[in-house]
Amino acid sequence: MRSDIANAPLVEGKDYERIAQPGPFQPLAGKIEVVEVFGYTCPHCARFEPQLEAWAAKLPADVRFTPVPAAFGGAWDACALAYYAADEVGVAKRSHAAVFKALHQDGSLPMQNVSADELANFYKAYGVTPDRYLQALRGDAVQKKVDAARAFAQRTKIPGTPALIINGQYLVRGDSFDDQLRIASALIAQAHVCRSLARSAERRCQHLNAIEPLAGVGLAYINRLSDLLFVAARLIARRQGIAEILWQPAAKPEN
User: Fold this and answer.
1) pLDDT tens digits for 129-155?
2) SS3 label, residue 17
């Protein structure tokens, strides 16, 4: 990718869209959330998967990458149920790429009207007995996860799959898979500037609070906001291979 393109400022409406009803898929809990809404039968998702998997593998521990199956109805819902049943029995991550391969390359799973028994037989290769998988597939816990995935897709108004969403706030656009990942990285990188501004505002509020007490909720909010943006800043430094300048305490004078 050309460096001028990689470093080009993002344009709202072209590179990304702000989500009208923002909110993460799961509580952030100090993490930065990157969601991919995907469909197993989607050929674009199948082509994107190897590149996305390599990109996601480089994310540090303070970034949570979450695949969310698109529950658009019909065959989409069947695939969403299949994914969350695999998640329920603990093999979704190990089997994720293999499901794409089985559908789009090997043909060992049918693209249309895949049956519960066919899915159960597929997951036997991951040490899951058919009875256990079928129990999960038909359970309330899996259905609730599919319902949550459907609600998220509806709220964020994704136009199709694959779709990348950052912290439930930004829907990534882009002309190619490379472009989507560039934009996703840049959206997180904006946290560098935001974090600096938040930290400066926090210091000013602390100074004012020493003169005249401020509302405690406001101080707590800006402190937490600063912490969140600091996490995002560290993420970008690590992903781009930039060595961090770590704080070092001053040497204590010798007695």
Assistant:
1) 999 999 999 999 999 999 999 999 999
2) strand
The residue assigned the tokens 């390359």 is 105
CA 108 – CA 25 distance, rounded (Å) = 32
DSSP state letter for 102: I
d(CA 191, CA 31): 13
- Spatial CA neighbour of 83 closest among 99, 107, 64: 99
Q: Which percentage of the chain shows pLDDT scores above 70?
A: 78
Given a cut of 90, whether residue 111 has pLDDT beyond it is yes
Closest CA to 63 of 174, 228, 254, 218: 228
The reported pTM is 0.75
Q: Alpha-carbon distance 205 to 223, whole Å?
A: 10
Positions of E strands within 121-233: 163-166, 170-172
Question: What sign does the dihedral 52-57-60-66 (CA atoms) show?
Answer: positive
End-to-end CA distance of the chain: 57
Tell me the residue type at 14.
K
Name every residue whose Cβ is closer than 8 Å to that of residue 70 and which is 6 or more positions away in sequence: 37, 38, 39, 42, 76, 80, 149, 153, 158, 161
Distance, CA of 227 to CA of 28 (rounded, Å): 13
